[in-house]
Amino acid sequence: MVTPFGSMSIGELQAGLTAKEFSAAEVARGTFERIEAADGVVHSFLETTEALALDAAARIDGAIAEGRLAEMGPLAGVPVGYKDNLNLTGTHTTCASNMLRDYVSPYTATCVERTLRAGALPIGKLNMDEFAFGGSTETSAFGPTRNPWDTERVPGGSSGGSAAAVAAGLVPVSLGSDTGGSIRQPGSFCGLVAVKPTYGVVSRYGVVAFGSSLDQVGPFARSVEDAALVLNAIAGRDALDCTSQPSDVDFTANLAEGVRGMKVGVVPAFLEAAGLAPEVRAKTQEAALALEKMGAELVEVELPHAQAAMSAYYVLGPCEAFSNLARFDSVRYGYCDPGHKDLGSQYEASRARGFGPEARRRIMLGSYLLSAGVYDTYYYPAQQVRTLITRDFAVAYESVDCILAPVAPRTAFKLGEIGDPTEMYLGDMFTISINIAGNGGMSVPVGLGADTGLPVGVQLIAPPFKDANMFRAAAALETVYGPAPVAPDYADGKVGA
Amino acid sequence: MKTLEEVFETWEAVIGLEIHAELTTLETKMFCGCKLEFGAAPNTHTCPVCLGLPGALPVPNRAAIESIVLAGLATNCDIEKHSMFYRKNYMYPDMAKNFQTTQGPIAFCMRGHLDLDVDGRGAAERYRLDALAPGERDGNITRTEDGYVAHVGITRIHMEEDAGKMVHLGGGEGRIAGATHSLVDYNRAGTPLIELVTEPDLRTPEEARLFMQKLRQIYLAIGISDCSMEEGSLRCDGNVSLRRRGTTAFGTKTELKNMNSFKNLHDGLAYEICRQAEVLEEGGVIYQETRHWDPSAKRTIVMRVKETADDYRLFPEPDLAPYDLTDEFIEGVRAKLPELPDQKAARYAADFGLTSYDARHLVEHRATADFFDECMALAAAEADGGAFAKPLANLIINDVTAWLNAHEGEALAATPLSAARAVALVKLTVADVISSKQAKEVFAAIMDEDADPEAIVEARGMKQVSDTDAIEAVVDEVIAANPDEVARYRDGNDKLIGFFVGQCMKAMRGQGNPKIINELLAKKLG
Amino acid sequence: MTQHLSEADVRGIAEYTRIGLTAEEVVAMTADLNAIIDSLAPITEFDLDGVEPTFHPIGDLSNVMRDDAVRGSFTQAVALENAPKQESGSFLIPSILGEGGDR
């Protein structure tokens, strides 16, 4: 059986293109065929973009014919999927919401544009929790995505589609977004390398905002190198995003260095946290020892205010979301409930029917938290707590190069298993403080949990703009655990159980 | 209803203004690169940012920040180095994001002030001004010889963005009330807007009008806006409350909108003051509400009652980096600060001996002040150039201004009256070649025929006759021909002198030097 | 669980955020919001005296601005592409004040 293109690495794809074993057009067509065959149950793609991909492929093939493949960029001929909150001209950008069911982007997000300029083949738009509110991709208005490792289970979220598509070998890499763990947690649930860079490394222009001071786009991949190659392509200052910053780092540069001499922080309080599944604790400790064995020095660090990160996040995220989602008002775009004679009732019906329950909850919560009198009780203190959490990390980084922590407290749960919103929120307990402080963090697969037999990831956390540190440690772990496999039922071209 | 004067016997008005100016002289909008252009086809100057599309992010226009700092420096504000943009959240269809990006408690410009010269009819509005002696200060005014100076505090000037424009259909006269639907055009959305808020230091509608006028002169001088009240690039809201004379607590205020001309600003405030007085005197209550000035009905009408303070859920805009303005930035802006109208007027008085009235009127418009400066630069080449100032000022304040008023939309710089021609014209009067009456005719001819004044005088043979012998002959003839009038004049009817001057002028076809005619008549009749 | 918000409060918030909720939805939303607000308690339990807030997690980055240069705009057709309703090149909305509205 021929290996599907979506199961290859970037290196394998480009080697094949260079050797003319297959053309970029064949890669594109093969990818769509595979999605057609294998994505039915998983339901990771909301839309596929055949015309755009074949167009891009034709340019790549033209270059190959002239021997100029190297000029076409580091992602030349690589199929890429995009979370459906990333604008790409001519595609629907729905945020998995009825509100944007019919919305067609008239412009392209900078991060997407940069993958295209790097030669990527745009394959389509990936399912997510509605407006990225959630940790399971069950709140999508278009139905949930299922975890390729066990289709009774969720892929995590909110970037569940981006994770599942890579885990099922539909595409080699994808982009997701992470506001409180939405890249790293599905990365862990699906056993992938999943990166949330430092806030400001990747432009947010064209990324439908959830929490503007927390959102960051990053890659899903099955190898550390592939993740680094994608991040290389999308990172850097963008004149259209005031909070983006220059990045002249090559994230692949130190992957082979190993961790000898590196100081890796471990947070005892994290490993003792109530709710942390024993198999996840065991895997995290195992990964720490693996790093130590390879020459890293383990250093215990304290993050005393990390316990407040959850509540700070559930103040800041909804406040920003409330304001960001006010624009969905049925006037310029989005769902417009028909038949209203006055704007007020059109507003209320359109927003009630366009937004799902979690979006409505967060909008209303944010509106309450910002209201006069309440602002000083929650919003302002939450921003002060952000200062304390940021300081905690800064102090820790005085003695370590990166920190090792769990990603999610447990492995993937079953669809419908968690109904209570506050319980769902606990899934972000180890990832949220990283968004609050704006640091980089990534999930790295470390095999399967002893109890559930499902993928477990560990989180590597790096100081601001030193994302290369976590890539270096991640590459070392990869030498122990190997690159992330395609989920067994989807490996070797299989299309599910 | 009582007159304003009657109301002021009992009540003191407390007025504060909120003045919005669009930075129309910039190329692009506040947070995106869409072109600023008034009157384009709807929604043709829009992009993801100003349409509030999902995922769009704002990037501030540096020139807009420079403009507001310039405005702050020109109005004696402290420039705050550290400030942030905030989101002011409320849903309204002309606001694409459903929040307005504006500033929070700290604006770029804080704590400024302007001094207003109030005289004439305007000064008469001030209650019991005569109780003060010139130079004496009472509260925020200082008495002057011909009026007073009002010292008006400026709370802040902050940077924000304008909303789109709506057209309301199906109701009466495009009004929102009764409309069945509306059309929204976002071309104006995101236009850089600066809002100046005054302290409640104004006491009369005239002070409010003068403040607005002075601010407009300053904004025009620094070139940050076209300040068109008609097109809405300069807009003013007024907050008005009354309190009994002698008390200090503020009364309940109303907010007055739609005062889109200096006259409307004055008349709207005057009406509202009288209305409030009537309500209060009849034992009624003033509600905190927004009222709309209807100039045709000459009254204010309620737009909206504010039952509770608006809660805009203001919070710092996470998409925009904070500001930490450097000294270098501020000094760079200060270097662009031109001579301001007040400074210019002071210079005209000091250097050219103009009266403060003349100087103030010359600087009222940047174009006339620039023209005067240009003329005086040319006049400096003349031996008695200094003598040109007063007649030049008169020419500009009277003839040129009247001509421009009669020719709406024409720019002074584009008229046939170049500075060289103006100086040449004045030179003819200073040298007594033509009379001041003839000068008016020559001015009209310059504007009509686009010709030089010397050529006009030559062609029309209108040189003034200053030859004393020739004039004396005419004077003698006139005296001889009108014995009755001579007798009556000598009996004490002084007014007849005008008759004799007129007869002489008529005989000389208007070209006699009136000064010499007067002298000779006085001598011969006296 | 503390009653931070009454159903009347929740109706007020729904009105402000322009989300039309049914009576049952108000009941459920009130319970949900109160539970979530309860979970925010840790934020109120710190001594934060003298701690500066971090509104922007971007370090020392400040004064980010662009030149006053024109960048392309949408054509009218593209601007209106996603409009639910349009007329004469503009976005069309129903009566802002509603029938008999005189706000």
Automatic annotation (TrEMBL), chain C:
It catalyses: L-glutamyl-tRNA(Gln) + L-glutamine + ATP + H2O = L-glutaminyl-tRNA(Gln) + L-glutamate + ADP + phosphate + H(+); L-aspartyl-tRNA(Asn) + L-glutamine + ATP + H2O = L-asparaginyl-tRNA(Asn) + L-glutamate + ADP + phosphate + 2 H(+). SUPFAM superfamilies: Glu-tRNAGln amidotransferase C subunit. One of its GO terms (biological process) is regulation of translational fidelity. Its EC number is 6.3.5.-. Keywords: ATP-binding, Ligase, Nucleotide-binding, Protein biosynthesis, Transferase. GO terms for molecular function: asparaginyl-tRNA synthase (glutamine-hydrolyzing) activity; ATP binding; glutaminyl-tRNA synthase (glutamine-hydrolyzing) activity; transferase activity. It is an enzyme of class 6 (ligase). Gene3D superfamilies: Glu-tRNAGln amidotransferase C subunit, N-terminal domain (1.10.20.60). It comes from the Bacteria. InterPro entries: Asp/Glu-ADT_sf_sub_c, GatC. Allows the formation of correctly charged Asn-tRNA(Asn) or Gln-tRNA(Gln) through the transamidation of misacylated Asp-tRNA(Asn) or Glu-tRNA(Gln) in organisms which lack either or both of asparaginyl-tRNA or glutaminyl-tRNA synthetases. The reaction takes place in the presence of glutamine and ATP through an activated phospho-Asp-tRNA(Asn) or phospho-Glu-tRNA(Gln). Belongs to the GatC family. Heterotrimer of A, B and C subunits. This is Aspartyl/glutamyl-tRNA(Asn/Gln) amidotransferase subunit C. It comes from Adlercreutzia caecimuris.
